[in-house]
Automatic annotation (TrEMBL):
GO terms for molecular function: 4 iron, 4 sulfur cluster binding; metal ion binding; tRNA-2-methylthio-N(6)-dimethylallyladenosine(37) synthase activity. Its cofactor is [4Fe-4S] cluster. This is tRNA-2-methylthio-N(6)-dimethylallyladenosine synthase. Coiled coil: none annotated. Binds 2 [4Fe-4S] clusters. One cluster is coordinated with 3 cysteines and an exchangeable S-adenosyl-L-methionine. Pfam families: Radical_SAM, UPF0004. The gene is miaB. PANTHER family: CDK5 REGULATORY SUBUNIT-ASSOCIATED PROTEIN 1, MITOCHONDRIAL TRNA METHYLTHIOTRANSFERASE CDK5RAP1. It comes from the Bacteria. It is an enzyme of class 2 (transferase). Residues 157-388 form the Radical SAM core domain.
């Protein structure tokens, strides 16, 4: 039996045992959020999440932005081919940016794939899977432009306490290193009423934090002709009762206007945090990147943000080794980084992305030069991050307790979460302390700083100061639903309480 024949052997999702699925996600937050929508669409069509890696349907949500994305995808597909041979009825779907870019190349290189779909038609996945199964042939559907705003699709959220909300998709800029405009199309803005309705629904489900998401959030409104739409949206979201933390990503320095800074400063639930990509500190390189601001404007925005929001933690993205970058250009980047005092930075080594204008520019920088500059930049930024974090020692922080933020929490007996300024904080749970739930707020004092996190361990061993939240209650309910354990009552401050670990409950005594 050939792999193509296997397709017709797939039982219908209507069969008595629901088909299981898994979504593997590569790339940015936009992709992570898209994957929530893919899961939501599949579950609305009757699929159920697989336990572990063994699934009837494997969906790969690809990213074309990162280096070697193609190699990783085809490596993954190669492994899945042998899994599929041993599992009757299994289907493989590939979607996202790389699918949008490569289209039928994927089916030529990996003919055992059942469905290829683009960034504009995520909602079609269940029907494409069904069609591929029924016809016994691969389905390819790539739309060139968006038909339905993705946020109208069902969503399966990964977190009960925090959610992503798309305000726009696509981008009208033409940065020469970026593949997004050609894959995600022109910016499409969602109506403010729809955005606010989705936030309200999230809050009604227990979320206390949202992150507004767009390739270029502060050009929001360009489609319906309101230049101040983003600031207005922040203020309107700030009036939603029960919503305690609003974040957004990412703004573009060229479109960053003072009305947004005012809205940030005057809306208590907008967090004192800003992630704004610098990309380069050299004006010459910024021009070659077709980024229309210059370093002076960038630094001016930081000054104005810090003037209005003194505790703001500012982070950024920087690309090292863009074609034509000289040592002098790179030193400009170091200078701007030194002046900017970023709390953290995502630094990237430039590498060619086929299909982007920069890919064919002359003067590509040799790998070892890029590596050497990258290391110098990382060393500088790590030093600054550490200095900025050390300045936090002794300060009080409000930590939104997270699940899955602290990879070493099991070994260190700590829990983790994000402070209001988005710094990662780990804190010890003293022996006789009540234990917070993901979604609860913990009030602690920073005792130690590392470049990438803060510690807030109380040396006195006093019980944690916890504010139980609706988000914590929602976490309890979700845990109870997933393991048929009755949900616990909200934790009284300092009282023994039930901690749900996803298995039988464990009672923590005092
Ligand atoms: S602003 Fe530039 S880097 Fe960001 S998505 Fe648009 S084109 Fe890409």
């Amino acid at each position: 039996m050939t792999l193509l024949d296997d397709r017709s052997a797939a039982p219908s999702p209507d069969a008595l045992t629901p088909r299981t699925y898994i979504v593997r996600t590569y790339g940015c937050q936009m992709n992570v959020h898209d994957s929530e929508r893919l899961s939501g669409s599949l579950e609305a069509a009757g699929y159920v999440p697989a336990e572990g890696d063994d699934a009837d349907v494997v969906v790969i949500n690809t990213c074309a932005v990162r280096e070697n994305a193609d190699n990783k995808l085809y490596g993954n597909l190669g492994q899945l081919a042998s899994v599929k041979r041993g599992r009757e009825g299994m289907q493989i779907a590939v979607g996202g940016c790389l699918a949008q870019k490569d289209k039928n190349v994927i089916l030529e290189k990996a003919p055992w794939v059942d469905v290829v779909f683009g960034t504009h038609n995520m909602g079609s996945l269940p029907s494409l899977l069904e069609r591929a199964r029924h016809n016994g042939a691969a389905e390819l559907e790539i739309l060139e432009s968006l038909e339905v705003f993705p946020s109208t699709l069902p969503t399966k959220r990964d977190s009960t306490y925090s959610g992503w909300v798309s305000i726009s998709v696509g981008c009208n800029n033409t940065c020469t290193f970026c593949i997004v405009p050609s894959l995600r199309g022109k910016e499409k803005d969602r109506r403010p009423g729809d955005v606010l309705a989705e936030i309200e629904a999230l809050v009604a489900d227990g979320a206390i934090e949202v992150t507004l998401l767009g390739q270029n959030v502060n050009s929001y409104g360009v489609e319906f002709g309101d230049r101040q739409a983003f600031a207005k949206l922040l203020r309107a979201a700030g009036r939603i009762e029960g919503l305690q933390r609003i974040r957004f990503t990412s703004p573009h320095p060229a479109a960053f206007t003072d009305d947004v800074i005012d809205a940030m400063a005057e809306t208590p639930s907008v967090m004192p945090q800003l992630h704004m990509p610098l990309q380069s500190g050299s004006d010459r390189v910024l021009k070659a990147m077709r980024r229309s601001y210059r370093s002076e404007r960038f630094l001016g925005i930081l000054d104005r943000v810090r003037h209005r929001i003194p505790d703001a933690a500012i982070s950024t993205d920087i690309i090292v080794g863009f074609p034509g970058e000289t040592e002098e250009d790179f030193e400009d980047t170091l200078r701007v980084v030194e002046q900017s005092r970023f709390a953290s930075a995502f630094t990237f080594q430039y590498s060619i992305r086929p299909g982007t204008p920069a890919a064919t520019m002359p003067d590509q920088i040799p790998k070892q030069v890029v590596q050497e500059r990258y290391e110098r930049l990382a060393e500088l930024q790590d030093r600054i991050s550490w200095q900025e974090n050390r300045a936090q020692v002794g300060r009080g922080v409000e930590v939104l307790v997270a699940s899955g933020e602290g990879r070493k929490d099991g070994a260190t007996h700590r829990m983790s979460g994000r402070a209001r300024d988005n710094r990662l904080v780990h804190f010890e749970v003293p022996q006789h302390s009540p234990v917070p739930r993901p979604g609860d707020l913990v009030h602690a004092v920073v005792t130690q700083a590392a470049p990438f996190h803060l510690l807030a361990d109380d040396p006195s061993g006093s019980p944690l100061r916890i504010t139980p939240t609706r988000a914590g209650d929602a976490w309890d309910r979700a845990e109870a639903d997933s393991c048929a354990v009755p949900s616990a009552a909200p934790a009284e401050q300092g009282a023994p309480r039930v901690v749900s670990l996803g298995l039988p409950t464990l009672r923590i005594g005092r």
